[in-house]
Design brief:
Layout (H helix, E strand, L loop, with lengths): L11 H11 L3 E3 L6 E3 L1 H20 L3 E2 L5 E3 H4 L3 H7 L5 E4 L2 E3 L6 E3 L4 E8 L4 H11 L8 E10 L13 E11 L2 H21 L5 E5 L11 E8 L5 E11 L1 H5 L3 E3 L5 E3 L1 E8 L1 H10 L16 E6 L3 H20 L4 E3 L7 H10 L4 E6 H6 L1 E6 L4 E6 L3 H26 L1 E3 L3 H7 L5 E5 L4 H11 L2 E6 L9 E2 L6 E2 L2 E5 L3
Parallel strand pairs: 3-9, 17-18, 17-19, 22-23
Antiparallel strand pairs: 1-2, 4-8, 5-8, 6-7, 9-10, 10-16, 11-12, 11-24, 12-13, 13-16, 14-15, 19-20, 20-21, 23-27, 24-27, 25-26
Helix pairs in contact: 2-6
The chain binds one RNA strand of 77 nucleotides through strand 13, strand 16, helix 10 and helix 11.
RNA sequence: CGGGAUGUGGCGCAGUUGGUUAGCGCACCACGUUAGGGACGUGGGGGUCGUCUGUUCGAGUCAGAUCAUCCCGACCA
């Protein structure tokens, strides 16, 4: 059948690419590396947005919107920042088209060349700090805590659906503070928000940690990350929070008068998560039957499938199912009654499984007589027939159970694929098997680079809340002294 | 930008040493039978074979050019 997936174990990439399309999440667009997010996929993203947005607001953050275009001169003010992004920017050079004088179609009007080129934002630090300069005069203006939900463009050489696309949706928070301590605390607070969201909502066990200087955001003094493990053992950076120090304040000359009247540069953070979380969700939980969505994120939590032969049978079954639907909805559960008569039940079962709906209820004439329903759960692919009375209460708790079980499954998988490694020879073969290796590192960029060149493995993070191993040891590569283990992995 | 591959109805493919009307599966349309794990039967619609040039009596098939896409690298959330 057209809907069948390549098995995960056979070709992980192909399985992933097919799943994105077959679960109706997204498809490729006419422009290479860009993606159409379809309604079902977007509904999941919207759910992520609304939950995260509420969390941000609890920390005092407000939403705002800054322009898509950044004048080239703004962009080039912070040296490290430019160096980090210059190679992947879309640039607007003209503002008008004209009819091709030599024939059909249109060409760029050479008369309409812009005096200063505009960069399509790859991230908004520069434009935002050029604006913050006008907002900040006094210590009384601080802190400023803004977030924006928007799209950004990074012209990547190679793209993959959700994980790396030329254009993607994200949120970027940008805060300005009077002191370094306050800014660092904010960066920590936000990475905690991300970690809680990943664990509680996405059912994704993540490791929180610091990036090594090599892997740090361009222009940051410190980058905090949440790192997740995918089912092929590769690491995925799922969100980052940066302590930017005074780099951007100095580049954009943003100073405030403190309570003694002295001018001080402002301290900054920025933090973001993107539609890459969709990729993380897919790769962490899905199986050969398709998507597996944690109930807290599923746009449809329960699907009802009627089974019938005649119209009378359908009416009787639908009556019962509608009653169940109302009762579930009264509990705040989102329900879909699949009453299409154009496809058969078996087709519906397979289709909703592909789309990852956590719970399916099937009800037919047989059940009506016996007073039962069939309840199937997506995470375990098991089903049981139970009395129709009390089924809604059962499903309410079942959704919680499924949420926990999906997290547990991912947690156990990760636990089984994290191991310590103390020998360089062992490292070289072990790292290729996938998973995270906890190893001693001497703290130098040279060692990290050498390891990357030889094995493609990078330091995913220096963990702060999971697998923390502060202990004396020797660097796995250089043999120099080390004060703790860090997480090495091959990453997306 | 380096290495590899592929372009044939919406999708996935076949198409022999060049040979006449370009074929198959899925999807689609109609009718009927079906319906508790991706239904079946019968009938039907839809493609000039990525593009250009060449070789030839004759090109989906051979040659050259060109464009596009995909995979592996470099780069990256």
């Amino acid at each position: 059948m057209a809907k069948e997936l390549t098995p995960r174990s056979e070709n992980y990439s192909q399985w992933y690419n097919e799943l994105v399309v077959k679960a109706d999440l997204a498809e490729q667009s006419a422009v290479r590396g860009c993606m159409v997010i379809k309604p079902y996929g977007y509904a999941i993203w919207e759910k992520m947005q609304s939950i995260l947005d509420a969390e941000f607001k609890k920390t005092g953050v407000q939403n705002a919107y800054f322009p898509l275009f950044i004048p080239k001169s703004f962009f080039s003010r912070e040296a490290e920042h430019v160096a980090g992004f210059a190679k992947e920017c879309a640039v607007v050079t003209h503002h008008r088209l004209m009819n091709d004088p030599d024939g059909k179609g249109v060409v760029v009007d050479p008369e309409a060349k812009l005096e200063e080129e505009l960069i399509v934002r790859p991230t908004s630090e520069t434009i935002i700090w050029s604006v913050y300069k006008n907002w900040i005069k006094s210590w009384r203006d601080l802190p400023i805590l803004c977030n924006q939900w928007c799209n950004v463009v990074r012209w990547e050489m190679r793209t993959r659906p959700f994980l790396r696309t030329a254009e993607f949706l994200w949120q970027e928070g940008h805060t300005a503070h009077a002191t370094a301590q306050e800014a660092e605390a904010k960066a920590n607070e936000m990475v905690k928000v991300y970690a809680d969201f990943a664990r509680n909502t996405l059912a994704l066990p993540v490791i929180v940690g610091h990036k090594s200087p090599n892997e740090r955001f361009a222009g940051a003094l410190d980058t905090l990350t949440i790192e997740a493990m995918m089912q092929d053992g590769k690491a995925l950076q799922a969100g980052t929070s940066h302590f930017l120090g005074q780099n951007f304040a100095k580049s954009f000359d943003v100073q405030y008068a403190d309570n003694e009247g002295k001018l001080q540069y402002v301290w900054a953070t920025s933090w973001g998560v993107s539609t890459r979380l969709m990729g993380a969700l897919i790769m962490a939980h899905s199986d050969d039957n398709g998507l597996v969505l944690p109930p807290k994120l599923a746009p449809i939590q329960v699907v009802l499938v009627p089974i019938y032969k005649t119209e009378e049978e359908f009416n009787a079954v639908a009556l019962k199912l509608n009653a169940i639907k109302s009762e579930l909805e009264a509990k705040g559960i989102s329900v879909k009654l699949d009453d299409r008569d154009t496809v058969r039940p078996g087709f519906k079962f397979a289709e909703w499984e592909m789309k990852g709906v956590p719970v399916r209820i099937a009800l037919g004439a047989r059940d009506l007589e016996a007073g039962t329903v069939e309840v199937a759960r997506r995470d375990t692919l098991t089903k049981e027939t139970m009395p129709i009375d009390g089924v809604c209460d059962h499903i309410e708790s079942l959704l919680g159970e499924i949420q926990d079980n999906i997290y547990k499954k991912a947690f156990d998988f990760r636990a089984a694929n994290i191991r310590k490694c103390d020998s360089w020879e062992e490292f070289k073969t072990e790292i290729q098997k996938g998973g995270f290796l906890l190893c001693h590192w001497d703290g130098t960029a040279e060692t990290e680079q050498a390891i990357k060149d030889e094995t493609k493995a990078t330091i995913r993070c220096i963990p702060v809340d999971t697998c923390v191993c502060e202990e004396e040891g020797k660097d796995i590569y250089s043999g120099k002294p080390s004060h703790g283990r860090v997480v090495f992995a091959i990453s997306y």
